[in-house]
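Fold this sequence, please.
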Amino acid sequence: MRAWAWISVGVLLASCTEADSSRIETSAGRMTIETVATGLEEPWAIAFLPDGRFLITERDGRLKLFGTDRAEPALISGLPEVWAEEQGGLLDVMVPRDFDITREIWLTFAVGDGEGAATAVGKGRLSANGTALEGFQTLFAGEVFPGGRHFGSRLVEMPDGTVAVTTGERGTGPEGLEAQDPMLALGKVILLARDGSPAIRQPGWRAGVLSRGHRNIQGAALDLSGNLLTVEHGAQGGDELNSPEAGLNFGWPVISYGEDYGGGKIGEGTAKPGMEQPLHYWDPSIAPSGLMVYSGKLIPNWKGDIFFGSLNSDFLGRLDPDAAAPTGYAEERIAASETGRVRDIVEAPDGAIWFLSVTNGAAYRLAPAPNDAE
């Protein structure tokens, strides 16, 4: 366990200065939170096109394209039919680095067959006028499982061009060992080639499975060295930040820093040989969602820091990997009226930090206040 070396800044409250923006004090100085999109229905993910336009998914099955003028968005057609029940629906969206050539847009979503539902991945080409996904094809689907909980799911383009997909264990609880079974896609990180074929094969594992023992991964990103990071929900406590690699087992539900709902031990404790320890964990749970490692482009003091949202405690979180704390890394929590149930967080092309609030049905831009900008 790391020794305490840095005191968390704690929760910081904003005060409104204008109808569509507010100012907030942070460890990196005063920031402005600006409203950039409203009227969203359960927004789930946000991604930027190279020209500065941005896409937002809504869980009920809508994909919207916003122009740089932030006017009324275009509703994109050609999407797959999604299973929009309970926690299922249209989930993540990813714009590959070669979009200018391929015009590919990748999505994760829930699909159902009457017996249950599964996490699926697919892609299509954005039409020249930005109103349709053309030739959409489903590339991968996990096992159909009863119920509507814990689909994951995030997409990350890896440095070599392969695509990492995160899944949930589908809410089977501490007694379910699906996340431990390497032949199942539940509770895993999956690695796909750009054509959707498995990008990794490990003996005794389902083709494409990179790592196992995850509960419900709702955030994924690359750090500044190109390493994959994920955040996943624990049960009652035990949310985790992990760094998945080939063949690693992250323990769920054999080990956990949380406890079962209503109390009670999960599995065998907090550690076991052959199972990985998290880089950071939260107890009590914060329900982390979305993940971004900041480049430092607009806010140099935060270069390399890890940002995420909270779905149950209404804040933006920042972890400093250079400063230790008892749970892993030192943490700052940034709270304002705009940070209700933060589902996703990304860095914009100009270095501003954008995030989605489910509570407010809105997207926001966080950046240094004008009089503090360098």
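Helices lie at 99-102. Residues 148 and 356 are 22 Å apart (CA to CA).
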